[in-house]
Design brief:
InterPro entries: GAF-like_dom_sf, HTH_MetabolicPath_Reg, Tscrpt_reg_IclR_C, Tscrpt_reg_IclR_N, WH-like_DNA-bd_sf, WH_DNA-bd_sf
Number of domains: 2
CATH class of the largest domain: Alpha Beta
Keywords: DNA-binding, Transcription, Transcription regulation
Structural class: alpha+beta
Pfam families: HTH_IclR, IclR_C
CATH superfamily of the largest domain: GAF domain
Order of helices and strands: HHHEEHEEHHHEEEHH
Helix content: 40-55%
Distance between the termini: 38 Å
Strand order of the largest sheet: 4-3-7-6-5
Radius of gyration: 24 Å
Largest sheet: 5 strands, antiparallel
Strand content: 15-25%
Protein name: Transcriptional regulator
GO molecular function, one term: DNA binding
Shape: elongated
Length: 247
């Protein structure tokens, strides 16, 4: 017979209080919460004080409501649901091409790195400059920039200086525009973001979604990277399907 898992009663009681507060449309007094959850009032007060202190609840004049920390968790829920679908794709890409795999999305006018899947034999690049500031120098950044309407891309480039990150970085807007026009749905980064690292990325397209999947390897493997276009495109298509299916 399987053994029962060890559970922490105080944690269970605190979670039940959170559920009870969240199930109500109005602030809930402590005495009502104690009755709903079936707890002694002193215990209820003790747990409520702790939850308020940690930001999971807020105490108002007429009762308790969910706190800012719960709102923050809710904002991250969609991303975590997305990762459960996309992580296997990135892991497979990493193992197939023997390089770190990346997923980035365009959100609120910025390029955001959503996930990185690496390993001891496939370390990720040292992200020494925030990727939201280096779209011009990364493979996945170029993928995303290439999909933006001209006006939106112009706005992004006006807000983000083409920083000179390495001797190979494109710092001229006209040259970057030419490169974006020529790339199709696959773009590379040959030591433009980081000396010693090469990247290849492909555009991820889905309803209401703009993003990119990319792979990074040591720069001496750049010639091999160029042969990975089919695999990276395939991963991008799988990611697009996963993004579309995520509620």
């Amino acid at each position: 017979m399987a053994s029962r898992p060890t559970l922490i009663g105080s944690v269970q009681r605190a979670l039940h209080l959170l559920d009870a507060v969240g199930a109500n449309d109005r602030p809930v007094p402590a005495k009502l919460l104690a009755r709903q959850v079936g707890l002694p009032l002193p215990t209820t007060y003790h747990l409520l004080r702790t939850l308020v202190h940690e930001g999971y609840l807020r105490k108002l004049e007429d009762g308790y409501v969910l706190g800012d920390h719960v709102s923050s968790l809710c904002r991250h829920t969609a991303t975590q649901r997305l990762l459960t679908r996309t992580r296997p794709v990135l892991r497979a890409l990493r193992d197939e091409l023997r390089g770190a795999a990346y997923l980035s999305l365009y959100s609120d006018g910025e390029i955001r790195l959503v996930d990185v899947v690496d390993g001891p034999a496939t370390p990720s690049a040292d992200l020494w400059v925030g990727v939201h500031e280096a779209g011009h120098a990364t493979a996945f950044g170029k993928c995303i920039l290439s999909t933006l309407p001209p006006g939106e891309r112009k706005d992004y480039l006006a807000r983000h200086k083409l920083a000179d990150l390495t001797p190979h970085t494109i710092t001229d807007t006209r040259v970057l525009e030419q490169r974006l026009a020529q790339g199709g749905d696959v773009f590379d980064d040959r030591e433009e973001y980081l000396v010693g690292t090469a990247c290849l990325g492909s555009v991820v397209r889905g309803p209401g979604v703009v993003g990119a999947v990319a792979i990074s390897v040591p720069a001496h493997r750049y010639a091999a990277v160029k042969t990975y276009q089919t695999a990276v495109r395939r991963a991008a298509c799988r990611i697009a399907r996963a993004v579309t299916l995520t509620p």
